[in-house]
Amino acid sequence: MRPMSFVVIAAVAFLALARPSAEAPAPVVEARPHVVHIERRDHAQALNFDFLVTNLSDEAWLLHEIEVSVYDAKGRLQARQTLNDNGNSPGIATVNQRQIAAGERILVFNPFHTFDDELELSALSFRFVWRRGGGDQASTGEVRVLPVDYAPRVLLRLPLGRRSLVWDGHDYYSHHRRFNYLSANAVAAGTQTNPDRYGLDLVPVNDAGDMHSGTPASNESWYGFGTPVYAAAPGTVVASFDAGLDNRDVDEARLKSDALADYGNYLVIDHGGGEFALYGHLRHASARVRRGDVVARGQHIAAVGASGSSLMPHLHFQLQTRPGTDGDGLPAYFTDIVRVLGARVVPVIRGPIDSGDIVEPASARR
How many CB atoms lie within 10 A of CB 191? Predict the structure, then answer.
């Protein structure tokens, strides 16, 4: 992994529409969040952000094409890629939402999310081509994104002390990334961003990679149920809940007073410098710390459960900019872990983990 820059401020500029229609202006496109981080892993660099699209006209528009151009620090083109409706099974069909009605706002998940580490991601220009009413009249707009490396304030250890599968992380297909905070239920809850953007669902497994034995309907059949959860870094507990049952269901009544109720039982730890870690779906009455407690790295703080919106017993872990649902997600870099690749293991000195990874603490192998 290459050294990381300590620049932590980025700019996202919206350029004027190139060919606006006098009768019906094309949708306005902006990148969200405003600060776009580069997450580096192995030989790739990933960008985890969305496009907020607003239709200020009284016409419907259909997204016809997205093109990205990648520039180096001197403004020279390094790469260009296009996603359009060419062919009988067009690539543009993979975009989550292409139609925008009059006066509507939608969230389009960025389809250009991973780049080779040889590219210098100093500036990216995204060109959007829209067709009015799905017809032939086209209008073009451009969004310029200036990504920055994320410099973690704290080094994280794996919050579980045993081999675990990242059942769902924050890759392009994960439900954590594909969270539409413009949906009716999210808006009703007051959510304006995506704190799950870099979320991780960690499921303890046995040596064969099995998550459970017996019937999966029973929490006790899962190898991870009741597994100790450890603090990934030192900090102060700023939010907690411990009374939820392990019934894999959301307490709808709680949602009216607690925006974090989806996570069931949870702990939020402030690591300082604008980094908060959330531990979710904890086992009923397993929390060993409460709000206001100061915790050390590696301290036993709770146990894996199946509370809240949980398909199975697992630990949900994420870093975010604020303690509640009004914060956005941050890349999580772990130290002193290994990736298990069958009979081989690959040490991770400092880096992210993601969907499909099988990981364990390096100390567990000593």
Answer: 20
Domain holding 42: CATH number?
2.60.40.10
DSSP state, residue 256: T
Is residue 230 within 8 Å of 159, Cβ to Cβ?
Answer: yes
Domain that holds residue 323: 164-365
- Which run of H or of E encompasses 352? none
Whether residue 302 is contained in a domain is answered as: yes
305 shares a domain with 186: yes
Using one digit for the tens of pLDDT, what is the confidence trace for 257-305? Answer: 898 999 999 999 999 999 999 999 999 999 999 999 999 999 999 999 9
Pick from 169, 67, 172, 46: which is nearest to 115 by CA? 46
Block residue for tokens 């017809």 = 135
- Given a contact cutoff of 8 angstroms between Cβ atoms, the answer to whether 259 and 325 are in contact is yes
Phi, psi at residue 261, to the nearest 5°? Answer: -60, -25
Contact predicate 231/301, CB 8 Å? yes
pLDDT tens-digit profile of 227-266?
999 999 999 999 999 999 999 999 988 988 898 999 999 9
Residue 145's nearest CA partner among 247, 250, 202, 69 is: 69
What's the pTM value of the predicted model, to 2 decimals?
Answer: 0.91
CA gap 159, 224 in Å, rounded: 13
Distance (Å, rounded) from C-alpha 116 to C-alpha 287?
A: 42
Q: What is the CATH number of the domain that holds 356?
A: 2.70.70.10
Strands 344-351 and 334-341 come out as antiparallel
- Using CA atoms, how far apart are residues 184 and 299, in angstroms rounded to an integer? 39
112's tokens: 């250009």
| Residue 359 neighbours by CB under 8 Å, 6+ apart | 158, 163, 164, 166, 334, 337, 338, 339, 340, 348, 353
Half-sphere exposure (CA, 13 Å, Cβ side) for 292?
0
Helix spans in the chain (H): 184-188, 252-255
pLDDT tens per residue, range 301-324: 999 999 999 999 999 999 999 999
d(CA 76, CA 69): 10
Strand-pairing partners, residue 228, are 303
Q: Domain ends where: 124, 149, 174?
A: 149
Task: Give the number of domains in the chain.
Answer: 2
